Amino acid sequence: MFIRSALILNLVVGCKVKGIKNSRTQDRASGVLLHMTSLPGAYGIGDLGPTASGFVDFLVAAGQRYWQLLPLAPVDQGFGCSPYMSLAALAGNPLLISPDLLLADGLLTKGELADRPPFSEYRVDFPSVVAYKKTLMAQAYKRLANSALLDAFDDFCQAESAWLEDYALFMAIREHEGQTPWYQWPTPIKSRKPSALAGIRAVHAKTVGYYQFEQFVFFRQWLRLRDYAQQQGISLIGDLPIYVSLDSADVWANQGCFQLDKATSTPTHVAGVPPDYFSKTGQRWGNPLYRWKIGRRKNDALYDWWRQRFQQIGRLVDAVRIDHFRGFESYWQVPAKEETAINGKWLKGPGKQFFVEVAEAIADLPIIAEDLGIITPAVIRLRDELGFPGMKILQFAFDSDARNLYLPHNFDSTNCVVFTGTHDNNTTLGWYMEDATTDGQTRAKRYANSEAREIHWDFIRLALSSIAATAIIPIQDILGFGGDCRMNLPGTVQGNWLWRCASRFMNKDIAERLRQETAFYGRGA
What we know:
Distance between the termini: 11 Å
Largest sheet: 8 strands, parallel
Radius of gyration: 23 Å
Number of helices: 19
């Protein structure tokens, strides 16, 4: 496991410590990046059922310690089903619910699972999957009243009411309003007038209950998977986007926490990043920005929400990568009227004080800081003061000279996580064939002492042999897949998040090859 931040531990327990040590915390280790939706399976999308536990078994056979995933929250078809633009940060994605496990719980029948569309094993057809899964879940919900799970469902709703009631109400209203965003709802509902919300709860009680049921099943199945992974010695690494979607239960329920226009309930400014490696015009993400302060005082409601968010992700995973960590030091503010992110400006973020305020909520949650993009000394200083490991991306290492900070010989600390690439990168083979310059290809081959016949394995060996305490390899690189298997192209909406891996590719031979390489470089489980 990752060593938890000494600063955070000091803040919580009030004593000086250097880190939690046990027989495995300081070992070199490695893992695989594969989002849940990319798993194989018969139902059009990866899920929490047998193929997920089967992937845990694959990791064990391959000598790995970690399974890294993308965000697990509900996705919005209006944003291409991006896991980084979800409908609720605290909820789970119902598309990941396993029909096989619903069958085992007596909530579905074999006949209901036999009649399914001819889904592709290589791509997720989200509209078809959403329609199919919705039909199955509606049938399962009908059986809940006569199920042995009814008491457990009631207990779940009571225990999770702090976030679940707002989420289920948000989803029910959204369905009733034809999936229009909350800021276009009738004013009494948009502004959360208590009498209007009470009326919705009364009229649409069954719909509200359905969305609570989805979350009950998701958490039940997820915690079962996490328990299995822990039993097998596999730790799960989650992903926490710094920002949330405007059309989300989070913003609707916490409007005072975000930079919104009072008249329209839409953002005055939005999040993004200036021009960088991925885009000449920057990336205009469109997420509402936080109101870190109200006047000169910190926004207490916002900090309470963040504490709840950290506590929730800590229930689901063993460690978490904070996406766009630099936004805590300073963030790129773009006027909402702008079509690109060029005309933005940097503003100071909450900094170290944020982590002081939420220290107790993250005391048991190891954190990886996604510190990519335009990184200043102040961002590095914040990361290092907190003791969070940063990220090293090998695909970025060969576009300059010997001083490139992503080259393994320039890693200045073991407290980092090295990747061949991430979900935002091309696959390594795709990078070499499509994106790398001729000079970049030449430098990569020379650095790896290779003719690049298997450039993906060259990069895997560079990652595993580095001093980084942890190495994470996307499954596409382990399998040697090209650019057609890329997960995401930043700055675009269409064609992302669709890739799936057929089961035959993750076989015993691949697991054994990865196990041997992992062991050779001292990272074996």
